[in-house]
C-alpha cells in the first residue's frame, strides 16, 4: 500500500485509438539522441495498450531512466522508512496547523472516501493527502500501476540497464517535506485537485495521449503555479532544475537513453522540454 503513496505523489501526470502524436519526444544534440516520455503513474486497465511511440522509444534505447529507483519502492524496508519519515511531531499534527474551516473540509473529504481523519492525525499533511488520493483513485478504478512500473518490469525482463534522476533517499526527503511549513496552502490545493480529479481524468488522459503540451499545462500546472507558487516550485520547478544536468550528461555518454518522468515535469516554461529547447536542443514528437 505504501508504494502507492509514492506513486500518487507523483501523479502529476483510455481505451482510445493510437494518436499521431503522444507524450514521447526525441531530443537531439548533433548526432546524439535522448528520448523523453511523460508518464501517468497510475492507470486503469482500459488505458492499455500504451501509444506505440512509448514502445518505439524503448526499443531504440540502451538505458532507461526513471524519477527514482522503481524496484526499491516495493522493498518493505523502503516502505517502513517512508512510514517513519511521514510521522508528524506531536506539536505539529495537522489539527494544530490548519485553519478550522480547512480542517473541517479535510475531515469531510476523508469521510467521503471511507477514512477517519482522527486515525490519520499522527501523520504529516503530505501522507494524509496521499492516503486520500489513493482512496479516490481506487474508487475511480485506477488500480493498475502506470507507465513507469510497466517499463521498469520490461527493462528487468529484457536485462536493459535502468537508472534514476533522484536517489530514493532524496525522494523520501522530498515526500516527507512536501507541504511542510505551508500546510494550509498544500491541503487546500490537494483538496481542490482531489475534488476535480474524476471530472478531469479523461481530459488529462486524452491530452497525455496526444502529447498536447498546452492542454496538459492548463490541466496540470497553470492553476498550481498561479495559486500555490511555493508548492509548484518545490514539486516541479526545483526538481526539474536538479534533473537537467543529469540529462545534459546523457548526450556525452555512449548509447541512447530513455527518460520517463511524470508528464507535469515536461510542460510549461519550467518544464524539461521548453528548457531544453531554450538551451539549443532539438525537440520533436516521436513518430510511428
What would you call the structural class?
A: alpha/beta
Residue-averaged pLDDT, rounded? 88
Largest sheet: 6 strands, mixed
Q: What percentage of residues falls in helices of 4 or more residues?
A: 40-55%
Shape: globular
Distinct helical segment count:
13
> How many beta-strand elements?
8
- Low-confidence runs (pLDDT<50, min 5 residues)? 1-20
Neighbour order of strands in the largest sheet: 6-4-7-2-1-8
Q: What is the rounded Rg?
A: 19 Å
**Span of the ends, CA to CA:** 37 Å
Q: In a few lines, what is going on in this structure?
A:
The protein has one domain.
Protein model, in words:
This protein has helices at 2-9, 52-59, 76-85, 100-112, 117-120, 125-140, 147-158, 168-177, 183-210, 213-220, 222-227, 229-250, 272-278, and strands at residues 24-29, 32-39, 42-43, 63-66, 144-145, 162-164, 257-262, 282-285. It has one domain (2-285). It is an alpha/beta fold and 288 residues long. It contains 13 helices and 8 strands. The strands form 2 sheets. It has a 6-stranded mixed β-sheet with strand order 6-4-7-2-1-8, sandwiched between helices. The longest helix is centred in the C-terminal third of the chain and has 28 residues, at 183-210.
Question: Features of this protein?
Answer:
alpha/beta, globular, single chain, two-stranded antiparallel sheet, 13 helices, 288 residues
What secondary-structure arrangement, pairings included, does this model have?
Layout: H1 2-9, E1 24-29, E2 32-39, E3 42-43, H2 52-59, E4 63-66, H3 76-85, H4 100-112, H5 117-120, H6 125-140, E5 144-145, H7 147-158, E6 162-164, H8 168-177, H9 183-210, H10 213-220, H11 222-227, H12 229-250, E7 257-262, H13 272-278, E8 282-285
Parallel strand pairs: 2-7, 4-6, 4-7
Antiparallel strand pairs: 1-2, 1-8, 3-5
Amino acid at each position: 500500500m505504501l508504494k502507492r503513496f509514492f506513486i500518487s505523489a507523483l501523479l502529476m501526470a483510455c481505451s482510445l485509438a493510437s494518436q499521431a502524436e503522444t507524450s514521447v519526444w526525441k531530443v537531439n544534440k548533433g548526432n546524439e539522441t535522448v528520448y523523453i516520455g511523460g508518464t501517468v503513474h497510475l492507470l486503469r486497465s482500459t488505458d492499455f495498450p500504451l501509444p506505440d511511440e512509448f514502445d518505439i522509444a524503448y526499443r531504440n534505447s540502451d538505458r532507461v531512466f526513471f524519477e527514482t529507483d522503481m524496484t526499491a519502492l516495493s522493498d518493505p524496508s523502503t516502505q517502513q522508512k517512508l512510514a517513519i519519515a511521514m510521522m508528524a511531531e506531536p506539536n505539529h499534527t495537522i489539527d494544530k496547523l490548519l485553519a478550522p474551516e480547512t480542517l473541517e473540509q479535510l475531515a469531510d473529504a476523508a469521510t467521503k472516501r471511507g477514512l477517519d481523519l482522527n486515525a490519520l492525525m499522527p501523520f504529516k499533511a503530505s501522507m494524509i493527502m496521499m492516503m486520500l488520493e489513493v482512496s479516490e483513485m481506487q474508487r475511480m478504478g485506477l488500480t493498475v500501476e502506470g507507465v513507469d512500473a510497466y517499463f521498469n518490469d520490461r527493462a528487468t525482463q529484457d536485462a536493459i540497464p535502468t537508472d534514476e534522476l533522484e536517489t530514493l533517499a532524496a525522494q523520501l526527503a522530498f515526500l516527507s517535506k512536501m507541504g511542510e511549513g505551508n500546510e494550509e496552502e498544500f491541503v487546500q490545493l490537494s483538496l481542490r485537485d482531489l475534488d476535480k480529479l474524476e471530472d478531469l481524468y479523461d481530459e488529462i488522459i486524452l491530452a497525455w495521449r496526444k502529447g498536447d503540451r498546452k492542454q496538459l499545462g492548463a490541466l496540470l500546472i497553470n492553476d498550481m503555479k498561479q495559486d500555490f507558487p511555493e508548492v509548484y516550485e518545490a514539486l516541479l520547478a526545483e526538481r526539474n532544475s536538479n534533473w537537467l544536468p543529469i540529462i545534459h550528461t546523457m548526450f556525452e555518454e555512449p548509447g541512447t537513453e530513455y527518460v520517463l518522468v511524470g508528464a507535469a515535469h515536461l510542460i510549461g516554461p519550467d518544464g524539461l522540454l521548453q528548457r531544453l529547447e531554450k538551451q539549443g536542443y532539438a525537440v520533436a514528437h516521436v513518430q510511428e
